[in-house]
Design a protein that fits this description.
It is elongated and about 80 Å long. By secondary structure, it is of the alpha+beta class. It is built from 6 helices and 7 strands, in the order αααβαβαβββαββ. A 5-stranded antiparallel sheet has the order 5-4-3-6-7, covered by helices on one side. Strands 1-2 form a two-stranded parallel sheet. The protein has one domain: C8orf32 fold.
Amino acid sequence: MHRPKLSRKQIKILVCVSIIAAVVIAFFYGSWLNFQTYYLGVMKDLNSSETKAYMRNKINGSHNFIELLNWTSQNLNWSEESFTRYSKPQQILNQGKGRCGEFTIVYIAACLAFGYEARIVVSRQFYQFGHGFHTWAEVKLDGVWTHIDSSPTAFWNDTSRYRNWNWGPRITLNVFAFEDGQIEDVTSRYR
C-alpha cells in the first residue's frame, strides 16, 4: 500500500498542532495537579493535632455535628466582597468572613476536632483552573457520607440543587471528595 507523501507545509502544520496539543494537555494536567495538591494539603492541615487542638480550644464544650454547623455560622460572615482567601481555620476565623470554601474548612475542622469523620467535597468544571466551582462538607454518620453545606445562603442550601444537578445551564461538573491523603470521584452521587 502506497502512502501519499506529506508536503513541507503539511508537516509544519502537523508539528504546530502537535505542539499546541501538548501544551494544552500539560496546562490542564498541571491545573489538575494543583487542584489535587491544594485540597490534599488543606485536609492534611485540618487533620493535624495542632488544628484539632486549636478548634477544641476555640469551641467551648462538646458539640454534635449540627451544633458545630451553627457554631460555624455564628463565627463567620458570608462576604461577596473581595478578601484574602485562607485555607487555615485560624486565619479564616481571625478574618471573620468567607464564602463556601472558608465555611467548609472551618466546619470540617470543627467536626474533625470533635471526633467526626469529615471531608471536603468540591465541584469542578473540567477546564477550571481555580480551586473549584463550589465546596461543601460530607460527614460520615452511621457509616454513610452525608452531604452538609455550611454555606449560609439559600442558593447553596437548596438540597434539590445537588440531587438534580441543577446548577445552571451548560455547567458540566465533576465532584471530588478529599480526605487525608485520599481523593474520591463522587460525581455519580450528585447526579
